[in-house]
Amino acid sequence: MPGKTPQRKGGNNKPVENGVRSTKDVEGGKGKAKKSAAKDTDEEMTVVVPPSKKQSSASPPADADGDVAMGDEDKGEEGTVEVDPAVQAVADIKSNFALLDRAVALFDARFSLRALRSISLIRKRLSPDVIAQAIVDTFPATVTSGNIAKNLLVVLGRESMPLGKSSSSAAEMEVDSDSSSKPAKNNGPKKEVKEIIPEVDIFLGILIQVYLFDSKQYKKGAEFSQYLSERIQALNRRTLDSLSAKVYFYFSLFCEHMEPLPPSPESPIVAIRPTLLAALRTAVLRKDIDTQASVIVLLLRNYLLTSHINQADLLVSHTQFPENAVNNQVARFLYYLGRIRAIQLRYTEAHEHLTAATRKAPGSNCALGFSQTATKLLLVVELLMGDIPDRSTFRQANMEDALHPYLLLVQAVRVGNLENFETTIADHADTFRRDGTYTLILRLRQNVIKTGIRMMSLSYSRISLRDICIRLHLGSEESAEYIVAKAIRDGVIEATLDRERGFMKSKEVGDVYATREPGEAFHDRIQACLALHNESVKAMRFPMNQHRLELKNAQEAREREREMAKEIQEGDLDEDDLGGDFEGM
Question: Where are the alpha helices (DSSP H) in 260-417?
Fold first, then answer.
C-alpha cells in the first residue's frame, strides 16, 4: 500500500530494490525507523543504494507498489532543453558590462578592448529585438537612464518597450507566486537603483551601429553616429577612449557608403571632415591616444578617396601620430602614408612604410584583405624602384589568386617585354582600377623599357639603336637614342653611346662585392631589426601604478623602523623583544 513502509522479518532483511522509494515512503518511514531502532538495537541498518549513472539512462525501476520515481525523468527533460538563441545573445551582450565596469574601476583600457573584440562573436545574432531586450534589462526606469535608453530604443523602433523589467525576472516572479500562496513579507527598504555607467550605453550604441551597417541602413546609421559622437564629446571620460574610436570608425564608414559615392566632391565624406578635425583637435588636447590614432587614419582615408593628396600630405606634416597607438591603427597609418609617398614619386619612403605595414598586419585571416591590398601596392612600388619582387610572395596560399595579375605584370617587367606589359594592363585594367594601382602601373612603361635596355647591355657588348628599336617596339631610332641616354644618365646601365655610328657599347661588369652595395644592404637589415626590437619594447604592457604601491610599502617600512628605533631609545623595547634581528638605522 502506498505510504506504508515494508515490514522486516528478523535481522537478515534486504533493502528495497535499487533503493528507490517514493517521497511519502521516506517521510512516513522516519518515525517508524526511529521507533524500531530504539526497540531492536541489535538489528542491522537498512542501506539505501543510490542508482548508478549507467542505470540513469534506462527506465527507472518500480517499487513494491508499482510507483515510479520521477527524479530521473526530470533530469532527462533538462538535458534535452535547448537554449533560445535570442536569450543567449542577450546574455552574451550583458556579460560584457562586467568588463566595462572593471575597466572603469581599474582605469584599464584592456577590459574595454576585450568587450569590443566580443562584438565579432555576437555580430551575426544581432537584431532589433535582441538589442532592445538587452537595453530594457539593463536600464532602470529612472529619469536620466530612461532618456538615454529611450534614445537607443527609438533608433531600433522599439520605443514602446518598458524599462526595468527583464524577461528572466518576470519568469522568476511567476514561479514564486505559483509555488507559495502566502503574501510576501516586507524584508526592509528597497535597494537603491544603481545608475548605469556611460560606457554601457555607448557600447550598446556601437552594437546598434553594427546592426545598422549590416542591414545597409547607412543614412539612419550616420544620423545615429552623429548623436553618439556628440554624447561622447559631452561626457569627456578617459575610459571612453577606445569606445569613441570605434564610434568614429563606423561614422566614417556610413558616410562612405552613402550616395553619391566617392570620389564625387558632393559625397557625404566631404561633409564630415569638420567633425573629424574637431574630434582630432579635442583628442589631442585630452591626450586621447585611441581616438587620435583612429581619426588621423580616417582623415587620411577620407582625403585619398577624393584624391586630395596635398591635403593628406599637410595633415601628415602638421600632426604627430601617437607612438603608443594600437598596432592595427599603426599598420593602417603606414599603409596610407606609403600610398601618399608613392603618388608623390618618393618610392624609397613608400617602400619603407609599406614594408612596415605588411609586417605589422595580423597573420590571421581576419586581416587578409588588408594584407593583400598592402602587398599589391608594395609590389608596384618595388617595380617602380627598379627591383623585381621575390617569387615566393606569389606562392603564398592566401595570396596566390589575388596576386595573379601582378605576377603577369612582374613577368613582363622582368623580361622587359613591352608588348606583354601592355597586354597585361589591357586584360586586367578593371582589377588594377579597383585596387587603386592603375595610375601607378602606367608609370611602369619607362621601367619596362629600361629593364629591356639593361638586359641588352648585359647580353651584348655592342648593339645598334635600330635593333633596340625593333626589340622594344619603339617608334623611331631617335626615341631609342633618347631612352638609352637617359638610362645611362640615371645609372641604370654602364655603357657609352656612339651617335655617329648609331650603337651602344656596354662596359665590362665589375665585381659587386668590391663595391659598398653589400655593406649598405647589410646595414639596412640591421637597422630594420633594431627598429623592430625598439617597437616591441615600447609595446610591452605593465600594471598601472605598480611603482606607487612599491613606494608606499617602502615608506611604511621606514616609518615602522623609525618608531621601533624611537621606542628603543626611550627604553620601551629591548633587542630581546625584537628577536635580535633588528639593526640600527
Answer: 268-271, 273-286, 289-305, 309-318, 327-343, 347-360, 368-384, 404-415
Q: Which residues pair with 68 in a beta bridge?
A: 62
Q: Vertex 124, ends 120 and 127: CA angle to 5°? A: 120
Q: Is the peptide bond before 263 cis (omega within 30 degrees of 0)?
A: yes
- Distance CA(73)–CA(54), nearest Å, equals 14
> What residue type is assigned to position 120 of the chain?
S
Closest alpha carbon to 446 in 407, 486, 396, 398:
486
Q: Rounded to whole angstroms, how far apart are CA atoms 195 and 186?
A: 24
The one-letter amino acid code at 390 reads D
C-alpha cell at 87: 536569450
Q: For 412-420, what is the mean pLDDT? A: 84
Q: Is residue 233 part of a domain?
A: no
Task: Give the pairing type, strands 462-464 and 495-498.
Answer: unpaired
Cα distances (Å, whole numbers) of residue 199 to 166, 204, 247, 337, 396:
21, 9, 12, 33, 42
Residue 463 host element (H or E): strand 462-464
Ramachandran quadrant class, 416 (left: phi over 0; alpha: psi -120 to 50; beta: rest): left
Position 537 in a domain: no
pLDDT at 433 over 90: yes
Short-list 254, 290, 295, 291, CA closest to 273: 295
Q: Which of 258, 246, 344 is nearest to 297 (CA)?
A: 246
Distance CA 98, CA 89 (A): 16
- Does residue 280 lie in a domain region? no
For the domain that residue 499 is a member of, what is the CATH number?
1.10.10.10
Confidence of residue 376 (pLDDT cuts 50, 70, 90): very high
State which of 499, 514, 529 marks the end of a domain. Answer: 514
* Tens of pLDDT, residues 188-200: 444 455 678 899 9
Instruction: Point out the domain boundary residue: 514, 536, 559.
Output: 514
Q: What is the domain count for the chain?
A: 3
CB of 341 within 8 A of CB of 353? yes
Separation CA 126–CA 156 (nearest Å): 11
pTM above 0.90?
no
**Which one, of 465, 472, 427, lies nearest residue 446 by Cα?**
472
Per-residue pLDDT tens over the stretch 239-265: 899 999 999 999 999 999 998 888 888
In a domain, 120, yes or no: no
Residue 543's pLDDT band, with cuts at 50, 70 and 90, is low
Specify whether 561 is located in the same domain as 508.
Answer: no
Residues 505 and 554 both lie in one domain: no
Contact present, 249 and 228 (Cβ < 8 Å): no
Using alpha carbons, select from 293, 194, 183, 298 the residue that is nearest to residue 241.
293
Q: What is the pLDDT of residue 251?
A: 95
Q: Which range is least confidently modeled, 64-68, 294-298, 377-381, 483-487? A: 64-68
State which H helix or E strand residue 493 sits in: none
Return the residue matching grid coordinates 559622437. 229
**In this model, does residue 353 exceed pLDDT 90?**
yes
CA-based nearest residue to 478, from 419, 486, 421, 488? 486
Residue 314: what residue type? L
Range of the domain at 496: 449-514
- Is the separation of the CB atoms in 490 and 447 below 8 Å? no
Collapsed DSSP state (helix, strand, coil) of residue 573: coil
